Every structure is written in structure tokens, then in C-alpha cells.
Batch of 3 targets.
Target 1
Amino acid sequence: NQYISKAICESSCYANTQKTMELGKKIGRRFAELAGARSLKDLLSLPPEKVLEYSEMIFNAPTEYPRPFERVCDGKLLPLNPYEALRSGIARHVRVMAGCTSGEYDTASYGRSEEELLAIIKGLFGDRASEENLNRYINSDPSRERRAAIMDFRCDLAVRMPILCMLEAQAAGGADTYLYFFDYLPEGDFLRSQHLFEIPFFNDKLEIPMDMDVTLHQPVQGNHPDHSLVPQIQGCWAGFARTGNPGGPHIGCEWPPYRLDNKVTMVMKQGIWNAFRDFRKTDTSITQPLMNM
């Protein structure tokens, strides 16, 4: 169990709201109903396109079927909630680095009205996106634009909080962990750093557009990508792989580990790297407790 000594987790982590056996069975019954299946043989005979079609129908009803394709902790195949497992120290030998960007879902918000955004968020998160929770979050920072606050709330529940909860569980289990947050607006673009932002820089493939939404003509690296970020991001990823610490001269500062008694986030804003303690503390105090609902 010690072949892996380091891990870089991207694209969020599991949410601290595990699917129950009851919900798993409900989703299974609904899938069989959509497929008109009466036996396992009927299900196994479905063509791939039908499996995708019925799965999308379930996936697109998140209020009725939340987290439809996440694992079920059944006590047998998966004996523990993943957070409980990490807190127990089961992976204390694995150093973990993870993080997200400021505009993970900005592509999904572009061109939509505030009412549409709120409806989508409530559909995704149900009671966690109550009017009380949303208003508390939106009003917590008067200097932040209302639309940006709405999108930050969505990003927190979908990405930032799952990552934070995972790192805290891993840190509680005795491992070194490192947390990053990229807040970057590419030159001439109108979307903040999107999901996948770091990939073309780490791979040094800036000439190949990587789009979350091709219709917006806003690739994740920007239409005029900053080549100076390549050695910075490569240095962090490679440094972590070599030594277990992503900081150093390539970003001009040391990168302290994220610990429960010293909650440090490395923030990269327009190519400048700084370590912040209790980063976005107020936002976190509102949305992190919602992960346990």
C-alpha cells in the first residue's frame, strides 16, 4: 500500500455528501425503468448509446437524483466514507497537492441571466443553495460584484470545498498537503481562469487551444497565453514530484504545507505567487459546513 508516495489531485475531489444505499437503489430502479429492463440480462444487452442516453436523463435531474454516479459506501466493497478513511491515516504516507481556479464554471455562466444562474445552482445543490445561504454568502463581501459572488458560491460547493475537505482529512491523518488557488485573467479575455487552466502550461502546449466551450473562443490558456507561467507551473508540479514540496525559486517563494493549525493556500494572481493563511476565510466558513448536509 506504499507504492504511491505523492499525488496531485485535479478536477475536484469526492464531495462530503456520500450517496446512500437507498439512493443508489432508487437510481438503479429508475435506470431499469427507463431501459424497460426486467433482468440483469436485459441491462447487459443495452447498446452503449442507450446506456449513455438513460444515464444523462438521470444525471440531468440532480435534485431528484443527487450525485447519481458517485460511489456508495456499502460497508463491504467500500467499508468507509473516504473522508473517514483519510482521517484514520490510511494514506498518511501519501503527500497530496490539490487546488482549483477562480473561474472554474465561468463558461457556464456566460450569457445567462442572474435568475438562470440561481435556478441552475438550486437545481445542482438543492437545500444547500437555499436563499438564506446564498444571501449570506453574497452579502458577506460588499466589495464583490453580485454575479461574481453567485459564481464563487457555485465553485465553492462544486470544487473548492470538496478539495479543501479532502486535504483537511488527509492532513488530519498525518500527511503533508499543499493547496493552491489560481486567480488569473488572460490578456484580452473576459473569463477568469477556467477549469483545466494549468494543463496547457504544465504540458507546454500553449499553441493548442484547450476550450471548455468552443463557442466562446476563450481557450483556458487565453488567446494570448503568458509563456512566463510555463516554468512556474512546471516547476511546481515537477518539484512536488521530485521532493514532495512544490515551492522554490521558480515561483519566488517557499510553499508551506496546509495544516489544520496553519491553513496556508498558495495563491497565484496574474503570475505573482503568495502564500495566504486562512484564504477566503469568510466564504469558507459559510460553504464548508454545507458539505456535511
Note: The longest strand covers residues 95-101.
Target 2
Amino acid sequence: MFSWLFATVVAVGSMHAAAAEPQVDDKTRNAARSLAEQGRDVYLQGEYERAYDLFHRAYGLVPAPSIALYEARALVKLGRLVQAQETYLRAVRTKLTNDSPEAFRKAVQEAEGEEAALEGRIPKVTLVLVGPGAKQPNVSVKADGELLEPELVGVDMPINPGSHVVTASAPGGEETRVSFTIAEGVKQRFELTIALPVAQAPHVKEAPPMRPAAAPPQRAAHGSWQAPVAYAAGALGIAGIASGVLTGSMAQSHYSEAKTKCPNHTCVEGSSGADELASFRTLRTISTAAYIVGAVGLAAGVTLLVLAPRHEHASSTAIFLGPGHAGVRGTF
């Protein structure tokens, strides 16, 4: 299997590689032969990483297609099919002359056949960018920590079989991470959600904090129907605000559960995460409605208290709001 590999290394002095290398001297040729022999020994012992390194070094000294062929075979044993394909092609592209040894011609022929057979074994992945930040310039996509060229995103990309980690992010945005394992000959597609940078995220203006309503002015008059109705409206408002706070807290709890149970912000229909998300949306709607009812009730109560005639001895009455509490206070 290896016999002709070393015999041809001796004769490389008359061989010119594709880049028109000058003739190789005896010292360099002997060093290449020694490295190739060491590569053979460790290859037969199953030490493919070491064999690849020795064959690669030998080829660097003497670019013989026979050495490149065995360098590619070591890479195949290591599962580095993408690199092996390129090494096979390096052997195939060797320019042969009429004086090239027969072993060189045989190596080129074998490399060509093995490269063609390897093509169908190489897995391919398609990485698709989605989300609000997908069109941002300078989106960074990395496979196993190595930055990918933009031209490789969105198309079938050859990849070695095994486990991989792909990450993507826009400058200043949150990173998306996808981990997967792929087998030989398999094609897979992955979507990477790109978030907008924080500085470009939609800005929601916060409402100013609510302040205690001023006590209505006293009026020298007898009681009327406005005061009881105002207190009732105020009580309704307080109940609405309290309900809004309670349901809002419950909605937040369901939202946190949904984030935990839905990886990559995607909930599968029928899963527990999807149920949590549905509960969050329902409670959020109820909370919003309760806040509206509360605000209307409080506003109506304050308005009626302002308009209501008062006894001269009535000192003060106020509807108040504060963090986590609300109510009506005063003397009557």
C-alpha cells in the first residue's frame, strides 16, 4: 500500500509542481522521505493526527502528489472531510510532464477517484439570518469560533461531520447560539434570530409617576348625592388598580416560565411553554383592562368630590396612590 509512495519521493528531483517549483536537492528530498516514512509508521498504528502532520510537513518539502494523497487519507480518518477534499484536489491539480514517474500519475488518478467518492459524504448546513436585526450591516456569524465570510451565509456550506456551535449577532446586540450534531451526507438548515442593538430598539416613553390628588376645596353647603357616588367610584378605581397589579404580577410569572421553556424564543404549539405564553397574554390583557377601569374610577371619584358641596366643618378628603398601595383618606 505504501511501497510506491517512498520510491517516488526519491525521484522528485525532476518533478515540477503546479507552481513550477525549482528542482529539489538531495538533502531536502531525503528529509521529505524520512518524514513520509515516519508518517507511514504512525498511520499504520492508527495515530492519524500525527501521520497527517508528518505527511503535511513532507509535502511542504517535496510537493509530490503521492504524499498529498496520503495526507488526505489521514484527514479522512480524522473525520476532517472538508480539509481532506481540498488536499485530494491539491494532488489532482499537480501538473505532470512526460518525465513524471508513473507513481505520480497513479497518485493523481487515485486522488481524483477518492475525491469524487468523498463529495457525497460531506455534510452541508444552511445558516439563515432572521429577526429584526437580520439586515443590519456587519452581522457576525461564527462556526466553532471561526468567523464566516458573509458569502457563506444563506447557502449550503460544507462542514465536517460531528458536533458544532454556531453563533450570530449584530454589533451591540444579543448573541444567538445554536448547537447541533450532523452526520455524514446530511443537509440541515438553521435559523439564527438577530436582535436589534440596544441603541436601536424601539423606545417606549415611560409615563410620569402618579401623584396624590389634591384635596378638593371646602364649600359651605349641605351634603348632596355627589359625595357617596364619588366614594363608590373611588373604591371601584382602587379595586381596578389592585386587580391590575395582581394580574400583572401573575402575567410576569407566566412570561418568565415561557422564556425558560421555549428555547431560542420559539414556542412549539401544544408545549408547556406555549401554554405559559398563552396565559401570559390573557393575564396581560386583563391587567391592562383593570388599570383602565381603575384609572377611570379614580378620575370620576376625584371629579365628583371637587364638585360636591361640603359642610363647613369638613376638613379634608383625598384619594391617594403610592407604590403598592392606594386608598381614600380624610375626615368627614
Note: The helical segments are 3-10, 26-44, 48-61, 65-77, 81-92, 102-119, 226-261, 272-307.
Target 3
Amino acid sequence: MKGVRSAGPVAAALMVVATVAAGAAEPYQIPAIMSLTGQGAFVSKGEQQSLELAKKLVNESGGINGRPLEFTYQDDQTNPQVAVQLANDVLAQKPAILIGGAIVATCRAIAPLIKNGPADYCLSPGLHPDPGSYVFSSSVSTLDLATALVRYFHDRGWTRIALMFSSDATGQDAEAGLKSVLAKPENKDMTIVTTAHFNVTDVSVAAQLESVKAANPQCFIAWSTGTPIATIFRGMRDQGLDIPIGTTDGNMTYAQMKQYADFLPRQLYIAAAQWVVRDDKLLLPEVAKQHDAFYQAYDAVGAKPDIASELGWDPAFILVQALRSLGPDAAPAAIRDHIGKLQNYAGVNGVYDFVKVPQRGLDVSDAVVTRWSPEAKTWQVVSKPTGIPLPSAPDTP
């Protein structure tokens, strides 16, 4: 865990003295291209709520140097082609900042268009932008989350591992990343006993899971989200495959956990950024302070934050911090460079250092492993940052 201190977005917001009432000035508008309909809507709707709650805090503390913040949303329908069309329309207006896309497919579609600005914050951790580019990526990267998850399994002594991926481009990227993690020297005693593949449209993966079970793994990683992961979970129940399973944090939504309650694995592990930590003893004080503001904002509207909430929250405040420092007339290059040099910045996901980790600010030291608790109906943290098991972490329910 990083040992630096920072005022963080909310504390900084409270120190801003607006020169005019925020509601009296022209709004500062940030376009946001999001998947508000289609398969990605379950994430994007939560990200939109997060941006709106962040906006409320920003405007209550002076806005952007006196100008109220507004997000203008456009729906790409979870379609990369539509995302490109919308992005081209937005780029023609020459904004300094863009938020978009909201899932990895739409982020990948938009990123090649962002050659000379605006500063674009993709809300998917699955995008890996080029260092020094105008594109930034939210949260801890999927590769670092996989690193923490593998470390947790390794340190629990679960060294015979089975893997399962979708056969599309996203699954291929995930497979390459996880196998690169398992190939690291510290994981030399871990053995991949089998690797299974499936199509995201498959309604059954019984044959694949039968081969997984026959390989006698001690643990299992299935890297997919939404309906496909539900198909895998049902198949595990039907096969009697009761071993620790890890998956991506894209599945960390309360709606999914409720919908899948009847067939969730008993030992479901997910690596996540530090937003999920509720024990202040496991956090730096400045990060704990941001957690208080984050959870209070959700408590005020009777909601519980999940993965979509954190994907929008920190990017909103990082962009606001840049605008407040540079002024609302800042050019895209100035905003990019400002964020690129930002260090010691406390958010709900950890302490950001964009010099150390270009375009993201977070790394595996900001990742923890969680386990879903049906009794508590939440994700309970079972590791220290980087995936090292907590002494109290149980092997079985």
C-alpha cells in the first residue's frame, strides 16, 4: 500500500471558494458516451448514477471555478460502430474532455480517434492506453486484478488451476493476460491443468465443465461477465464442481448477485480495486476519508455502490481536479499533461500516481481479493493489497 498522503477529491472540493454562485454561471459540459441500452446497460446505468452523484458534490462546493458541472450523455447502445459515430460528432465540437466509452469494446472503438485530444477517460479497466496518449483508463487494470487473484490462490496453496475463456477477442485478450501472469517466476509451481473455451452465446457449457472437473483442479478462473458467467455458474452447480472460482470484477453488481443467488458458487472470489474495502484499518487515512464521502453519497440516495459506481467516481473527480487547477478554458493537451503528472492523489480506489502508472495511476498494490458472502450479501475482503491472504481468510464457507 502506498505511504503518501493527499487531500483527495472531496477534501479539495471543500476548500474551493467559488467566485460566483455555481448556478449563476454557464455550465461546464463534459460529453459522456455510454452504453445506456444494450448488453452494457447494467454497468453504464450505474456509472451514470456515479457521475451524477459526483457532480452534485462538485457543484455544492463551487463547481468548476464557479461554473456548474454538467455531463451530457449519449447512448452508444453497446455498439462500437455507434460509439464511433457519436465520438466523431463530439470531436467535431472540439471539447477539451470526453468520457467514453463505458465498456472495453466501445473504448477500443473510440480510442484510435483520440489522436490530438480531447482528454478522454474510458470507464473500462480493460483498456490499456498507450503511455502519453490522450486516453486514460479507469480503476485497476484487468491484468493487475488477475495478478492479485492468482497470488491469492497461490498463497492459499491452490496451485492446480483450470482456466476458461470466451472464444471472442475479449476472451483471447483475457487468456493471454492470465497466462502471462501464471508464467511469472513467482508462479512457477502453479500448473494449468486445462484451458476450456466457449462462445458467449452458448446456453450450456456442460461439456467444457466436465473436462474441467476431470482435470481435478484445486481452483478455477472463468473470465467473463453477465449472461455467460451465469451459464458457467449454473454448469458448475449441475456438475457438482465445488472448488474456489475466480472471475472478473465486471460481475461485481448487486443485481447480478441477487439474480444468480440460487446457483452462485460457494467459493466465489473476485479481485477489485480498494473501493470495496470497508475496514479503515486496511486503508490509508486519506483513502478512508474518500470512502466515507463515497458511501455517504450513496447512502443519501438509498443505494449501495458496486463496480459501476467506482468506475465513474474517481475519473469524475480527477477531471474536475485538473479543471480547477488549470481553469475551465484549459486545452486538451494541458489537461492530458496535468493528469499525466498527477501524484499522491487519494481516491476511493487507492492513491493515484500517473507518473508511475501512465494513463491509469493505479497498479496491483491497489488491488485486493474479495469473496462473496451470501449471509452478509456483500463482497468481503480476504486479502491485503496485491492479493496476499489475510490471516483470517477461510478456505471454505
Note: Residues 322 and 335 are 6 Å apart (CA to CA).
